[in-house]
């Protein structure tokens, strides 16, 4: 079926006038009439009939108008959908984030974003940095947010640094090292509570020990979440090495204490990772833009 001719028929049926249809479509009346005759010939059915000085729909024309209304209404919906998608009003953002940004940054980012783009769907996977990178490379997510060192991601990935946060050694306020200045060699003799293998902070800790020729720390307790890690240290067991963003409030409240390790002043870099040379969808791009505007949540 000739959709152009069907559209002409639809406008005629909607306005009840070839003259009005001609004005709306900016097409001459003879051209419209010729297209309608051609459509009727193609269908083998009369769609319009004379009625006084005007025209009316035949029975089949009336039925066809019912279907054309649905068809062109869907067309309008499609056009609106594409426009909204292009403007970032619709879409689906798939995000992988490590525990630190997932708990302390992403909720605020999402709240700000959804207040502007409520119809954009969002899926968030909370994992460690190794798995976050894997999900990005395997096309399972659109972007990944985590901390780490530049050399930990391949050339096919683009990293954009958002901000830096200090990494602290923390213990219970009752620990003998609470508030003290000690050497790294003494610090690593303590039992540590850390995240699982694959955590970027844990890898930083191991790299730090190798750099200073210190023995590898004894990971006495291992958790898959930051909260559990911090709570174990608050309860009085061992020490941990963690982003200040996670424990600053606990330190200010006196539930944890810093240990100042001589010669160690490390920063945790939080970055947004995307696949290089792959354009982001409009919704994802708007989300990244929002993070740039509010990097600290």
Number of helices: 12
What form results from the Cα inertia axes? rod-shaped
Low-pLDDT residue spans: none
- How big a fraction of the residues is strand? 15-25%
The helix-strand sequence is HHHEEHEHHEHEEEHEHEHEHEEH
Number of DSSP strand runs: 12
Q: In angstroms, what is the radius of gyration?
A: 32 Å
- Please bin the fraction of helical residues: 40-55%
Give the termini distance in whole angstroms.
Answer: 54 Å
Structural class: alpha/beta
How would a crystallographer describe the biggest sheet? 8 strands, mixed
- The averaged pLDDT comes out at 90
Descriptive overview:
It is built from twelve helices and twelve strands. The protein has 297 residues and is of the alpha/beta class. Helix 1 (3-15) packs across helix 2 and helix 1 (3-15) crosses helix 4. Strands 3, 4, 5, 6, 7, 10, 11 and 12 form an eight-stranded mixed β-sheet that branches. It has a two-stranded antiparallel sheet with strand order 1-2. The protein has a two-stranded parallel ribbon with strand order 8-9. The model has no long low-confidence stretch (mean pLDDT 90). The chain has helices spanning 3-15, 18-25, 29-43, 59-86, 99-104, 106-116, 129-137, 184-187, 200-211, 226-234, 244-252, 282-293, and strands at 48-51, 54-57, 92-97, 121-126, 143-147, 157-171, 181-182, 191-195, 218-223, 239-243, 257-261, 267-275. The longest helix is centred in the first third of the chain and has 28 residues, at 59-86. The two termini are 54 Å apart. InterPro entries: LysR_HTH_N, LysR_subst-bd, WH-like_DNA-bd_sf, WH_DNA-bd_sf. This is DNA-binding transcriptional regulator, LysR family. One of its GO terms (molecular function) is DNA binding. Keywords: DNA-binding, Transcription, Transcription regulation. It holds the Pfam family LysR_substrate.
């Amino acid at each position: 079926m000739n959709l152009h001719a069907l559209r002409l028929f639809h406008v005629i049926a909607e306005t009840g006038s070839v003259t009005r249809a001609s004005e709306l479509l900016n097409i001459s009346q003879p051209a419209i009439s010729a297209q309608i005759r051609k459509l009727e010939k193609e269908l083998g059915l009369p769609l319009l009939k004379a009625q006084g000085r005007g025209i009316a729909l035949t029975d089949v024309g009336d039925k066809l108008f019912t279907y054309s209304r649905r068809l062109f209404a869907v067309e309008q919906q499609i056009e609106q959908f594409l426009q909204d998608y292009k403007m970032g009003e619709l879409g689906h953002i798939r995000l992988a984030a490590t525990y630190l940004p997932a708990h302390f940054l992403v909720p605020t980012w999402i709240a700000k974003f959804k207040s502007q783009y409520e119809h954009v769907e969002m899926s968030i996977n909370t994992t460690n940095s190794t798995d976050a990178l894997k999900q990005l490379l395997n096309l399972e997510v659109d972007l990944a947010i985590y901390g780490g060192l530049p050399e930990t991601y391949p050339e096919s990935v683009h990293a954009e640094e958002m901000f830096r946060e200090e990494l602290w050694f923390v213990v219970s306020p009752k620990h003998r090292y609470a508030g003290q200045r000690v050497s790294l060699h003494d610090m690593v003799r303590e039992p540590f509570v850390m995240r699982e293998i694959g955590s970027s902070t844990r890898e930083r800790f191991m790299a730090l020990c190798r750099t200073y020729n210190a023995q590898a720390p004894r990971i006495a307790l291992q958790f898959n979440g930051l909260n559990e890690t911090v709570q174990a240290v608050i309860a009085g067991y061992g020490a941990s090495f963690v982003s200040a963003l996670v424990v600053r409030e606990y330190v200010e409240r006196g539930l944890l204490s810093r240990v100042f390790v001589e010669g160690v002043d490390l920063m945790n870099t939080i970055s947004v990772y995307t696949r290089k040379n792959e354009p982001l969808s409009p919704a994802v791009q708007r989300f990244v833009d929002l993070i740039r505007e509010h990097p600290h949540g």
